[in-house]
Amino acid sequence: MKFTDGYWLVRKGYEIQNPADVRDIVTDDASMTVYAATHRIEHKGDTLNGALLKATYSSPMPNVIRVRLNHHKGRVQHGPDFEIHTLPTEVDITVGEDVAVLKSGDLSVRVGRGKGWDVGFYVKDRKVTGSGHRGPGYITDPQDRPFFREQLELGIGEYVYGLGERFTPFVKNGQVVDIWNEDGGTSSEQAYKNIPFYLSNKGYGVFVNHPEKVSYEIASENVSKVQFSVAGESLEYFIIGGANPKEVLDNYTKLTGKPALPPAWTFGLWLTTSFTTDYDEATVNHFVDGMAERDLPLSVFHFDCFWMKEYQWCDFQWDQEMFPDPEGMLQRLKAKGLKICAWINPYIAEKSILFDEGMENGYLVKTADGSVWQWDMWQAGMGLVDFTNPAAVKWYQDKLKVLIDQGVDCFKTDFGERIPTDVVYYDGSDPMKMHNYYTHLYNKAVFDVLEEKLGKNEAALFARSATAGGQQFPVHWGGDCSSTYESMAESLRGGLSLGLSGFGFWSHDISGFELTAAPDLYKRWVQFGLLSSHSRLHGNVSYRVPWLFDEESVDVVRSFTKLKCSLMPHLYASAVESSVKGLPMMRAMVLEFPQEPTCATLDLQYMLGDSILVAPIFNKEGNVQYYVPEGQWTNLLTNETVAGGRWVNEHHDFTTLPVLVKPNTLLAIGHEDRRPDYDYADQVALHLFELGEVQQARTVIVNTSGEEELAVTASRKDSVITVKAEGATKPWSLVLRGIHEVVQVEEGSILAGEQGVVITPASSGQQVLTIHLS
Length: 774
Fold this sequence. Notes:
Elements: E1 4-5, E2 9-10, E3 15-17, E4 21-27, E5 31-37, E6 52-61, E7 64-70, E8 91-95, E9 99-104, E10 107-112, E11 119-123, E12 126-131, E13 137-140, E14 146-153, E15 160-164, E16 176-179, E17 194-200, E18 204-208, E19 214-218, E20 225-231, E21 234-240, H1 245-256, E22 269-272, H2 281-293, E23 300-303, H3 326-334, E24 339-344, E25 347-348, H4 353-361, E26 383-384, H5 390-406, E27 410-413, H6 431-454, E28 476-477, H7 485-499, E29 506-507, E30 509-510, H8 519-529, E31 535-537, H9 551-566, H10 568-581, E32 586-587, H11 589-592, E33 606-608, E34 612-614, E35 623-628, E36 632-635, E37 641-643, E38 646-651, E39 659-661, E40 665-669, E41 684-689, E42 696-702, E43 708-717, E44 720-726, E45 732-737, E46 742-746, E47 748-751, E48 756-761, E49 768-773
Parallel strand pairs: 22-23, 22-31, 23-24, 24-27, 28-29, 30-31, 41-45
Antiparallel strand pairs: 1-2, 3-13, 4-5, 5-6, 6-7, 7-21, 8-9, 9-10, 10-11, 11-12, 13-14, 14-20, 15-17, 16-19, 17-18, 18-21, 19-20, 25-26, 32-33, 33-34, 34-39, 35-38, 36-37, 36-39, 40-41, 42-43, 43-44, 44-49, 45-48, 46-49, 47-48
Helix pairs in contact: 5-6, 8-9
């Protein structure tokens, strides 16, 4: 929200009061409160008839500083509030003659004690940002409504990322962003997942602790500042430090919640009925059997909206005309090795058998006069489940338990964005705050019941909407994209932005939701989709099975689905890392290479985990330009090497694309290529790429419960590579990619391979291999 008219003037009808004179600093063991007058105080009479703004600094955990700016604190505050996690923290506070300092870990805030307002945030002795003259402001508009804003310094060459799943330019500098969930597709400034957190390439993050609308002006209203504002008498935000961007995300997700670890089966290929297509059990079997007949590995089958009868969403009952034996049908599908997903939303249509039950028991959101809030958009006469009512949550979950008992393994939790603000909630929650927060309660209710029924690390959603903390309930997908190359690119931008907002797992509708893709786009999007964290074929008015596009599409789906299954030892270890450290599996290049300036703005390529670079192809011709960081990289698919530190131009047919493995990588490739959930440690092949002199490569193999089974380290000195394995109880092998001759292997046998020498330890429990190169 803009409050000024250029740099000098204030917009007509607005009044801004800024802290101008620090009058007092009060400390206790855990916090420091600064009192500042909004004008210079020259004598005692100047202390009358004016505001006193307060800034309180504290720390909920090491390397995180909480800032609370306050005008009048006596007003009643209604929830909801984000859940903030805390850790034991030693805070060091010193108040000197010229400056007051609060320090938490390596992060500190320094407040000048002279005239004016001078606040700096430092990681060790490096200033990362600050709040200066005319930065914070208490503001009233022409209707005398209060707002609070902050302006934090933006340095030269500094870029801002994140703020949720945004499909606008990846670097947010110059943009106006409102944190307000909307159902706007992927081609507008609106977003399904708005997260009031941004990450800077300067090595810090900022989380604004407000579920309601937060308005950002990012190098726009003031081109050297990031401004954020909220309605009301106070503003709270956190400065989050770290040694690098990964540590910042780790600390942010410690604060707001770590992503859960999705079950291993979710990483396979999902196929859906699509949205408005006609389908019954025969249609479903035709597609499922067609996939099997063509040797196309399939892991999950999803029933979209019309598994329920039209006008009755949600009643959680199968349309008996189309599915007369749902329990039998689900068991027959599961006998084919499939998991089952069913579409739901948090709305109850008036024709649903549940509407009267929800209305009579107070389970639906109400208007001020006590009526049930209703409208006809989406479902005729629909109401909203009131997830602030514990009884309504149990009622909703009980309906889902029936489906789980029938054989449903997970739910696509669609919608949750079009939430009205002229309503009354059971617990008295502020409807402005609930607009964004509603999705959190909705997804949590569904995730919790899945976890209760199926067990920890067996719960998974396919969710569209989210707010801060929603990363705890994976997986999320990108919403309604179009079947164009442009929309494919905007989807990737959205996913990379969401990943830099604390979300570990993300997917998208392969080939686009709206319209029907041309065969070339379908094949290119299949490559991208199966090199994403999660992979789903889904559409609107047409089916998405590959043989409806062309026969080559069948080959592409087969090849890349099998590739993904074989990469699961690497991918699931990356998933575990995401759940522990809050890192995205699909990583913007800046996250892995923050020291390479070229990587700061890249949004047409990404890292899949920490070792694989993927550059999707966004044109019919098969041409691609991408940047390769320093070092000698190897194309996983072709074994060709690419020298880094430069841009590369290539042409690819539909069987390949740039999938480059970083040098000094030990990449685990599994023995299974037909399913994503198998014993990753059994017969795993460890591919060693470009191990440099006095360098080390390490990999960890986990099981499908996320527990470490095998850790292998390779190191090189001169012409000797030493490989040490810890926990090896099952057969494994080593592939020296690009090396076709070795002099000797101690305690192992040698076999020539197409990609390089294959070395098999003398016994499955072999702990050390010593390899002498020629």
